[in-house]
Amino acid sequence: MVSDGHETDGGSADQVLTSLGYKPELMRTRSTFQVAFMSFVLASVPYGLATTLYYPLVCGGPVDIIWGWVAVSLIIICVAASLGEITSVYPTAGGVYFQSFMLAPESYRRLAAWITGWLYAVGNITITLSVNFATALFLVGCVNVFQTPDGQNVLEGSAYQVFLIFLGITLLCNLTFAIFWTFIGVIAILITVLVVAKNGRHSGAYVFGHFEVNSGWVPGWSFFVGLLHAAYATSSTGMIISMCEEVRAPATQVPKAMVLTILFNLAAGLLTLIPLVFVLPDIQELILLAQPVPAIVLSAVGNSGGAFALLIPLLVLGVICGIGCTTATSRCIYAFSRDGAIPGSKWWKVVHPKLDVPLNAMMLSMVIQIALGLIYFGSNAAFNAFSGVGVIALTAAYSAPIVVSMIEGRRTVATGSFFLGKIGWACNVVSVGASSPILGIARVSPALTLS
Description:
With 451 residues, the chain is mainly α. The protein has helices at residues 10-19, 32-43, 45-51, 54-59, 62-87, 96-103, 109-143, 159-175, 184-196, 204-209, 219-226, 228-233, 250-278, 283-286, 292-301, 304-338, 345-348, 359-373, 382-407, 422-443.
């Protein structure tokens, strides 16, 4: 691999890391394919879009679902390209907080790094938490495609049931480090619902042009609030940067993986959403459910057993997504602790000598997530809060190094192997300009009732 003098293999990548002031401790065993796969898993778009479909259904219907996804994906491509330019110069597990430190003027670089680092750490933890919680809620929805003879759900979905499911998923994600899963099952869902479509199919005009507001907000604002669906599914874009110190040529592999993954995710998202909207049941009934996708699949297939079987791939994909987020979060905490920014850093910066992973950092993240999960006993809007905080923190963290790079005239990124020139300027402007609306959207997410 050639990277214009930055690094061509693990050895020279370690030299770059050493020049940045860090001792190489993690094994560089991940190939370009593995980086791209990891980045794709972090997003797990079919799963992410399936578990948060409630938002656009309430806020705008089909138009919000389809065109909202396209709009946010195009913005996130700009974010990925902007972060890719910076990562090609500073490929460390510290990610955006280290990049903010290096790019900012000396007078406030420590403050910039400290704020960005905590936003990044909180974002990593809460997004991982929301992924695992969403999987728990989605599992309840999947089980309830089965009904008792009197038409009641077979699983009540009480707070303690959801929490115990969430606890089991969180423990599983922290005990499992790598799982490969085929997306054939997801494709099977899409083909089956379109072919069977027991209750018929909508017209193309409905799928791509029907706009229906049930949120209580004015149409324009409601549409933007519905974009949280897409913002949540793409919020993990920059988390892959935390894997830089396990990649053979991070200055080239990681930026390319980030950008290409968004393009693949855009296509995968449309492949997931369009068939579901074609067989969408009455929206007024769907918005009464926390997880509408199981009901959509059941309506299309007309058989509880068949619907549950088709939903299993999404459940497994949710667990895989949780594993990916857990892995990236542990590296984020490890890197932040390595710089002494987290209380008890001497414990969390340790790399397990046999497992070659920052196990203590992983356990810290797990304990915090479980503790925060207890909030669900007091509020059924907890998931909304978790996902909202995660999107807010990560969006702000991604914006920080981009803003600092623009302030310094992009002189530093011009030395990198992923420099995009004038296109990079345009990507920076779009990334920063779109961050404020996304932050505003995420802030109002707890106002939506999703339980």
